[in-house]
Fold:
Amino acid sequence: MRERVLITGASGFVGYHLVEAATQAGMEVYAAIRPSSEVGHLAPFNIKYTTLDFKDTSALVKELEDKQYHYIIHAAGITKAKTAQEYNKVNATFTQNLASAATKASIPLKKFVFISSLAALGPVSYTDTMGINEQSKAQPVTAYGKSKLLAEQHLSEFESLPLTILRPTAVYGPREKDIFIILKTLNLGVEPYISRKPQWLSFVYVKDLAKAVMLALGASINHASYNVSDGNTYDRYALASITKRVLGKKTVKFHIPVGMMNVMASLLEAAYAASDKTPALNKEKLNELTAENWNCSIAKIRKDLGFVPEYDLEHGLELTLKWYKENNWL
Structure:
């Protein structure tokens, strides 16, 4: 019998690559999706689908016992919301409910992997050459980061849960839609920056994140948290420099004062006030975009899980931009 894995958020950007990695590993994959989710891009994979009621722990217990999962990868969550309460409900309370069900259900569970975020720890100062490590004091600067930290705190209460937490930094790759906005802007010959303040950034290619998740499934250590990046530190201009070279583009580079961006964010939030959607630029996102240092150490995941990233930003962007062009995103 093949080992059975439940992947939540399976129809999303990261979820797609987790489904791909799990099927390649020979697992029987159940993709948890919303009834409204678009799943055409998952058609090439031999997987089964399920829906979960994250509000109802009893229903979750029944689902887990019906399917008898060996592994749970919880990647579902939201990165944009109107309020802190909405972030906390989806990212923290729903995670808590799934973990509670996993501990109550009679299933052969070997590992519960939670995809958190480096945003749960928050950035450090530019002069901090060590960057963010797993012992760094958590100082999230967004409601999203705070909700992920709250989820981690909830999970720590389930002592019997065979838990591993992964905190990826900025994830990019085929099908990603947020960093893609920057890449699309560069493709148009425009290269904007917020302020002239120096920054350190980190990135992880989505296939490396999927690799880290698969390693975590086999980890004997429980209740451990790991930062995930490609192990490199990049200045604020690296993403654009590589993109321009790969696309053969020249751009007009300019720097926008933070104050002006604050005004723009406020205007966009007002314009979206009556909408269910959240603008790509808002005051929350501005806190993240203007943070000085998102460099992080991956020494712990290298040591404990044997994680060796295969893609630096240059290699990963080359593949990503190639995919965007071939699929008419660019």
The first helix runs from residue 13 to 24. The mean pLDDT is 96. The CA atoms of residues 22 and 214 lie 7 Å apart. The chain is about 40% helix and 15% strand.
